[in-house]
Design brief:
Blueprint lengths: L2 H4 L14 H8 L2 H13 L2 E2 H7 L5 H13 L3 E6 L5 E6 L1 H4 L2 H28 L2
Antiparallel strand pairs: 1-3, 2-3
Helix pairs in contact: 3-7
């Protein structure tokens, strides 16, 4: 074995400012990316227009940027089908599917605890007027 083959895998520490895992956390922590992961995980491959309809309020620019970031990071695949008009489908990769449970739980947690968060916000705002 060569010396380079014996080297341990690089260690990552997201608490360190220079760690590349921070950029990955920026991507998966983005609200549109997290919702895209859940939407694609629940419904399977979807066309751009279906994703746009599923995620109310997302602009074309943000949807496009989010999908490109996800594709670059290996979370989704983009498949073009030659037709009139061209059909483009997005699907989670196995790496993207590995995030599905976590993102689904986070979405469900937010939906379940929204009344408590709203009450806390109202109390905070009342105390800080």
């Amino acid at each position: 074995m060569t010396a380079s083959a014996q080297r341990p895998a690089p260690q990552f520490n997201a608490f360190a400012a220079s760690c590349p895992s921070r950029r990955l956390l920026d991507t998966i922590g983005d609200k549109w990316v997290s919702l895209l992961i859940v939407a694609l995980g629940l419904r399977g491959p979807l066309r751009y227009s279906e994703l746009s309809s599923q995620l109310e309020g997302v602009s074309q620019k943000m949807l496009t940027q989010s999908l490109r970031r996800m594709e670059r990071d290996g979370l989704v695949t983009r498949t073009l089908t030659p037709s009139m008009p061209v059909r483009v489908d997005y699907e989670l990769t196995s790496l993207g599917r590995s995030l599905l449970v976590v993102m689904s739980q986070l979405k469900e947690w937010a939906e379940l605890h929204m009344p408590e968060v709203d009450a806390s916000r109202a109390a905070y705002d009342a105390d800080h007027r």
